[in-house]
Amino acid sequence: MSELRELYQEVILDHNRNPRNFGQLRPHSHHANGHNPLCGDKLELFLDVVDGVIKDIKFTGSGCAISTSSASLMTQFLKGKSIAETRIYFDHFHDLVTGKGLSDEDLDDLGKLAVFAGVQEFPARVKCASLSWHTLMNALDTTKHIAQTEN
Amino acid sequence: MSELRELYQEVILDHNRNPRNFGQLRPHSHHANGHNPLCGDKLELFLDVVDGVIKDIKFTGSGCAISTSSASLMTQFLKGKSIAETRIYFDHFHDLVTGKGLSDEDLDDLGKLAVFAGVQEFPARVKCASLSWHTLMNALDTTKHIAQTEN
Amino acid sequence: MIDINKVRSNFPILHTEVHGKALVYADNAASTQKPQSVIDSSSELYAKNYANIHRGVHQLSQRSTALYEGARATVRAFINAGDVKEIVFVRGATEAINLVASSYLEPVLQANDQILISEMEHHSNIIPWQMLAERKGAELKIIPLLESGDLDFTKLPQLLNSKVKLVAITHMSNSLGTINDLTTLIDQAHALDIPVLVDGAQSIAHFPVDVQSLDSDFFVFSGHKIYGPTGIGVLHAKEKYLENMQPYQGGGDMILNVSFEKTEFNDIPYKFEAGTPNIAGAIGMATALDYVSDLGLSAIDQYERELLAYATEQFQAIDGLKIIGLAENKGSIISFIMEGIHPHDVGTIMDMEGVAVRTGHHCTQPVMDCYNIPATTRVSLSFYNTKAEIDIIARAIRKVKELMG
Amino acid sequence: MIDINKVRSNFPILHTEVHGKALVYADNAASTQKPQSVIDSSSELYAKNYANIHRGVHQLSQRSTALYEGARATVRAFINAGDVKEIVFVRGATEAINLVASSYLEPVLQANDQILISEMEHHSNIIPWQMLAERKGAELKIIPLLESGDLDFTKLPQLLNSKVKLVAITHMSNSLGTINDLTTLIDQAHALDIPVLVDGAQSIAHFPVDVQSLDSDFFVFSGHKIYGPTGIGVLHAKEKYLENMQPYQGGGDMILNVSFEKTEFNDIPYKFEAGTPNIAGAIGMATALDYVSDLGLSAIDQYERELLAYATEQFQAIDGLKIIGLAENKGSIISFIMEGIHPHDVGTIMDMEGVAVRTGHHCTQPVMDCYNIPATTRVSLSFYNTKAEIDIIARAIRKVKELMG
Ligand SMILES: Cc1ncc(COP(=O)(O)O)c(C=O)c1O
Ligand SMILES: Cc1ncc(COP(=O)(O)O)c(C=O)c1O
To answer: By residue range, what is the domain housing residue A90?
Structure first.
């Protein structure tokens, strides 16, 4: 059961039960829908970006513990960060959940998001953990409107 | 090679080289085309039936030694026979080539056609031997125009 | 009577481990495992008897042809079809339904016509009709689903009318387990000359099917859900329909004669089997049907009903667990949801206990929408499952609660 | 270099007897035999790793999915496609061609448009286009065949024009052995923005294929002709075409979202793979591609060319035998006729000598019509055949003459 405890850490369960920044954000500057067709997870993400900085960020939707807590922790983490930085965090987060070695420094940078390291032992759950991040990228890239996790 | 010699008997090879009753028959009272799509054998059969008796019968077409000699021997055999009889001969011939036991008497009735007994050892060739007979049945049954051997 | 030890010894995969735990395979509605005889059937074919079929005079080709056509005869007998020529080999239930859509319904369907399906259909029995209806300007009508998991057949009198050109309905729901009694529906449809397609993808493995007494016009199923190989399935259609249907795909074997000016099509069922078919698949499926016939579908039905009753009781005893679909007449499928816990998390945790269940919408999104849930966890049982395994499953569910609680 | 003893030891069926004689299998253009690794691949899948793919969180489903998607990656590498998403799994070459006809060409083809094929096509690359042309009032145009067995490409300038909406042509003829150099054709078609479908059913097993350097828009082949299982094949299509093509069959896995009002289709290639695919077939085919890659397509090509040269010489020495198709560039296929002796009789007699050859029109009736013959006897050789076997075949042909003489 130890891998499962690694996956479902207390922080994750807490954010699943009480997601932070949950709700719609109006008005907002950026917005996207995310969808994982394989397990039915749905996510709607709202951002208010001012001068290249994420002033506010919220989400709604329904999903499993991993995707809900990931969205919740991501929104907490990103508030106040610059758009330019988010792309780097996206890459680092992706490396974290897919088990690509991450330098101690980069891991440090991810702060609380490090709790998702347990996902690497569960390849089928990588999509859950990264749905909110894919949705984020799409929200920032205005040409696409529905994010999907890769198949 | 003995099964092959049984199949390709001298009579069969002779009728293959020099098919009897080969050619068109005009005028004729009955006519049908036969076709074995699996090996490309094609047969056209003409009958002149008067008062229920086969006065003349001819065929054209191209096919393997078994189908050509079968058509040749069939036409020789049927000349002068009544329509009513042909259905019985059809059944007996079919029993012969598929190896269903035939009484000595019935075998005797088939005369020279008995050379086709060797076909029963070659299930793939039953269609060749029976193509002319199927075509005959179709010619007599005016509602159908192209005979096929069963698949 | 099912001799469970003997049966289990026939399935090699049941003796493997997952995450260090003995495998408990409870995902049978998605696909079933294969007995050794099915596995051996294709090995033996390829090692001794294989060649392409139908057009060969040589021995191996004749043997393969005899085995392939023998498989067709086995299928005919298994569902008691009237004639082998009513049996068309396809990739699976999905392709069979698409074949009927394109070769039967497409040529006759007009704008404003209707196709009647139900709210509990698998996507495979929705989308082909939806795509066709859209192309033709026709309408998809739905027999509604009740909270109980049964279909609301009281709506039939309004729904069945002369605009309906086909009824397509499942024999047994893959997400709810509901077994539909189709007798009245088929009678009423036939009274209006409307043909009925029965999706037998689930039913075929659970109880005896006789297409003549059922009187279905089209009946479809997949080999892989009845202990056979992947890539093979069956369309049964009444001869009167098959004879008049347009050819499906073009290619070798489905023609009699080809020239650039004109092509003559072959007889049924070959007209619908273009190209080299899944020869080993058909033969393997027949081996699976033989296996199941030896056990006896009635014995299987009885055994699985006992499992279902036991599992239902065990699961209902778990606090916060709700079973979705409690129809009177059910096959051995239990979908459930758990308060505050998403099925995806349930699936992962059960997997770590060695228990294979499916989570998600099970290709029946309209059913999920009807119950207003995103997904369920589905336990689907076979004659090779045991009460002891159900206890393990129930224990695994309790672990989920513990961990996520 | 082919180590012939080692290679032959990999194929169990080559060590069996037919009519008391050692089997000489020379029907490889119809279908190839399977090495032990391919046979073992599905046994192992079913005994250890099997479940339905894509929608499962549990171990077995993940393993099957990884193996199935791994097979797609193997196919991609084998034909050097640009991306795995350009690889669609189908039943075989025939289905692949039908898929392109219905999902690509049907929506764009107009009355009076043209489809250009050749006179040496297999029925599978004629009939789908003929059926479609008939439905649409379009025209089938034909690149003519020369007595030599080559296509008359000098006619291309007249035949290629803006009315042509697709060129569909074989890479290698299954009845004549001719290998078509398609470079110029494809360049000229592309200059007019006409896509080209290449039927690789035969070529795939005989020489290296690189779809990027070939620059085909669609490339199709069957697993069973390249030492893989039946019921599986490949459509490769350039992404720009695949992205815009209509979905093919409707069902599970090819959708993202379903409601009765609206359905969202999945991404490529999944949009074209409705229902449970031939999972074991795809994995078995990948095993076969690995086997062939290990030998090396160039080594295979060289070895088979030697066999072809030797067999051509041996057969031409037989009085009254005429080879049909003597193109400069040929794969290891020899079709022949014998004076006064029908191929069907040839086939039967050779079979009694243990030699498996195919007789008939080989699903290329227009080729037969062109040579004004009903059928041929076809010897088609693989890298597992030997010169000693060719001697046996030649001896068997002489026996035919003796017996029928
Ligand atoms: C009720 C039902 N219909 C159709 C299908 C489709 O079967 P296949 O994927 O084998 O084509 C399934 C399989 O999940 C099913 O359960
Ligand atoms: C040139 C060619 N194209 C297409 C096909 C059809 O292949 P399949 O029957 O595997 O679909 C064949 C097989 O005979 C062939 O030789």
So the answer is: 2-145
ipTM score: 0.94
**At A121, which CATH number?**
3.90.1010.10
CA pair distance D21, D7, nearest whole angstrom? 21
Domain hosting residue C396, numbered range: 4-30+296-404
A75 C-beta neighbours (distance < 10 Å), count: 25
Q: In this structure, are residues B79 and B62 in contact, taking their beta carbons and an 8 Å threshold?
A: no
User: Is the residue at B118 inside a domain?
Assistant: yes
Whether the CA torsion D221, D222, D223, D226 is positive or negative: it is negative
CATH number at residue D379: 3.90.1150.10
Please give the backbone phi and psi of residue A40, each rounded to the nearest 5 degrees, phi first. Answer: 85, 5
Share of chain B above pLDDT 90, in %: 81
pLDDT, one tens digit per residue, over D277-292 is 999 999 999 999 999 9
Strand C196-199 with C164-170, pairing = parallel
Q: Can you give the pTM of this predicted structure?
A: 0.95
- Determine, yes or no, domain membership for B108: yes
C246 and C305, same structural domain? no
Q: What pLDDT was estimated at residue B1? A: 54
For residue C174, the domain's CATH number is 3.40.640.10
- Mean local confidence (pLDDT), C315-331: 97
Q: Which atom of ligand 1 is nearest to the CA of C121?
A: 1
pLDDT at C225: 98
Angle at CA of residue C349, ends C344 and C352, nearest 5°: 130
Question: Is the domain of D71 the same as that of D61?
Answer: yes
Q: Which one of B4, B65, B124 has the shortest CB-CB distance to D342? A: B65
Amino acid identity of residue A78, one-letter, is L
Unique residue bearing structure tokens 């009736």 = D365
Cβ C375–A39 below 8 Å, yes or no?
yes
For a substitution probing ligand 1, which of C32, C98, C124, C175 has the most ligand atoms within 8 Å of its CB?
Answer: C124
